[in-house]
Every structure is written in structure tokens, then in C-alpha cells.
What we know:
The protein contains 4 helices and 2 strands. The protein has 134 residues and is mainly alpha-helical. It has one domain (4-133): Winged helix-like DNA-binding domain superfamily/Winged helix DNA-binding domain (Arc Repressor Mutant, subunit A, Orthogonal Bundle), CATH 1.10.10.10. It has a two-stranded antiparallel sheet with strand order 1-2. The N and C termini lie far apart (69 Å).
Amino acid sequence: MASAGSKRKEDTRFRILRLLEDNPTMSQRELAEAVGISVGSAHYLLNALIQRGMVKLGNFSASEDKRRYAYVLTPKGLAEKAAITGRFLARKLEEYEALKAEIEALREEVGNSGMEQRQGANTEAPSSRVRAGR
């Protein structure tokens, strides 16, 4: 079973690959903000993806700023994204089911608590009326 840290890293890698597939001209800063990581982490991740042959680095020819790059997913990167997508979806469905169960348990707890409060109010009401009637 994968650790929480490795799952989080894979989720981040999946989000980066997904964003780059849709918008290869995103800057490292934009990627970092979209994924919720530091720019340094985005830089490290992108370099790792480039070294593993999943992302190809190219200049963005339409940009005035020639320092801008395009991060294009390679066939290997697309295959990795497809594989991660299945695992990501399975994890999110597990989280969804666990959250649904927790919400249901909380609803029952609140419902039972509400019943106890209503029952408590009903038992207190007669004694309050007796005191008021004195």
C-alpha cells in the first residue's frame, strides 16, 4: 500500500500532467498556483518529468518573451497520465465513499442529539409549567 506522501506526490504529478496537456504554455508560477505548491516544487517536478521523458521542453514561438517555454507531454507522458488517472479516480472514489459514510454518521448523531434535546425539552416543560403555576 502506498504511503500518504507518495499518494500526494502522485496526485500532484497527475495535476501537473493534466494542466500541461490542456495548456502547455503555463509558466512554472502558474502551475504552482494552480496545483497549490511552491514554484520551487513545480520546477523540481517539471525537471523530473523532463528527465523521465514525459515532458518535452520547447520555446513558445508566439510569445514576445523568448524565455517562456512550452511544456509538451510526450507519448510516454500521455501514457503515464492515463495510468495515473485510473489510480487517481479510484482514490477519489474511496475518499468520496468514506466522506459519505462520515456525513451519514454525523447526520445520525445530530439527529439523535436533536431527538434527545426535544425529549429533554418535553420532560422539562411540565415541571416548568408547574413552577409557573405556583
